[in-house]
Design a protein that fits this description.
2 copies of one chain form a homodimer. Chain A is built from 6 helices and 9 strands. With 231 residues, chain A is an alpha+beta fold. Chain A is elongated, with a radius of gyration of 20 Å. The structure holds a DNA duplex (30 and 30 nucleotides).
Chain lengths: 231, 231
DNA sequence: TGCCTTTGTGTCTTTGCAGCACAATAATAA
DNA sequence: TTATTATTGTGCTGCAAAGACACAAAGGCA
């Protein structure tokens, strides 16, 4: 094999850490591998990138094939390329994470996922390939990003209570002493990005909470004028 | 060509944004391309990744071939993989940045750089490929990272004055109104990571400044106990 | 009607950041 | 030797944001 040929005997894939939130725990969607290598092991959903496909597109495709969802929040994190990371050849992988509303995910529509299941990130065991390392990277990125951009809302239903929002932040950031309710509300409301819907929860056995909605248009207007979210 | 073969008809490269600081401007090292495509254009130093080479290693190799330097600060930033980003085929590239002491760089030791030259980042023109976009990403990353980790010192000589350090931060962060001298000194000295050498500048036509040195050992001890640099 | 659970709210203290001016030091020129 | 020039080194005062903290109000349920 010529040197030039050997350069091209390599491939790249995308792996996607798909985050969801069930009201208590931060979760990720894992698939159980049906084929070697690592048959039977849990792994991040991923696939080789098609020759004429952009990287982001490939990550979107992986997500859609697994969940049927399109247009969700997606972010590239970093690339893993250790020579021996894939037993069958030189495959580097570009890691992404996405944020979906867990209620939108119904059932596996497709294909390569014999079984897909939500796992609490705090209880993820040993994964195939270098996927634990990839997960760590993506989780770190999420922790940083969720404070610098209003992406947490991608994990919540359109209407939510302030308590739900706080639980989400606590699940992601896992601060040692929790978050102070009054200070959290003060800070989040002072952004003026939450729209008070003048509706309340129904069917709860206690004082019902008010429902809010994230005002994306307003956020984008502010960003255009130099605003930067910080929580 | 079979589908499997076509998956493997692709390659990956690394591109390295090499930052230096000359006391006033933040600079990057660019090479002028001697071959098509983009012959004659300035470009980031980069190369294909060898089949049996890790990504970080490839980035280090590119740097060493160009500067002769080893063991410098290096960080992966992100991966660029648009289908049409390379005119000759599907080549995705993993972008890195490195920080070197500009005085350590003497002359081009090697090879693929017909001419390498420092360019002020503020005066970089149109580059080959998508290298302007890559540069933007790396610069943004540097701006963020230099505030979260004591990496600025990688760009300065071992002994430096507080004014030099401040000029470096101003060159990187380019804050609208400059940085206040007293507040900067207060903050940087309060980290207790600068070792006062009890030496002063010599041969300057004004009051000589004290020389300091970054205490890397101390920093690493603190990090091990949960400290996080923030400036 | 009373009980249970969760929501919603204000104040005080502490900490960090921004803004600001002038005397001390060394080289150089007169 | 003295004056000039350039740059260093230093402290205080608001102001804004963050952290700590407790209790009445609302609704379902027994």
């Amino acid at each position: 094999m010529s040197e030039v040929e050997s350069f091209f005997k390599s491939a790249f894939s995308v792996d996607n850490v798909i985050f969801g939130f069930d009201g208590g725990d931060l979760k990720i969607l894992l698939i159980q591998r049906g084929a070697a290598p690592y048959r039977g092991k849990w792994a991040l959903p991923g696939d080789l990138v098609y020759p004429n496909e952009d990287l982001d597109t490939a990550a979107e495709r992986v997500l859609e094939q697994l969940t049927g969802l399109r247009g969700v929040y997606l972010e590239q994190v970093r690339t893993f390329g250790a020579v021996d990371r894939h037993p069958l050849g030189r495959v580097i992988t570009i890691a992404y994470f996405s944020l979906i509303k867990i209620s939108d995910y119904t059932v596996t529509p497709a294909s390569f996922a014999q079984s897909a299941k939500w796992h609490s990130v705090s209880k993820v065991g040993e994964l195939a390939f270098d996927h634990n390392e990839i997960l760590d990277s993506c989780l770190k990125r999420l922790k940083r990003k969720v404070r610098m951009a209003p992406i947490g809302f991608e994990l919540l239903p359109p209407k939510f209570t302030l308590t739900e929002l706080q639980l989400l932040y606590e699940a992601i950031l896992a601060p040692p002493k929790g978050i102070d309710k009054r200070n959290f509300r003060k800070k989040i409301l002072s952004t003026n990005l939450l729209h008070d819907l003048n509706e309340v929860q129904e069917g709860v056995a206690h004082r019902p909470a008010k429902l809010y909605q994230f005002d994306k248009d307003k956020y984008e207007q502010l960003v255009a004028v130099g605003y930067s979210f910080d929580i």
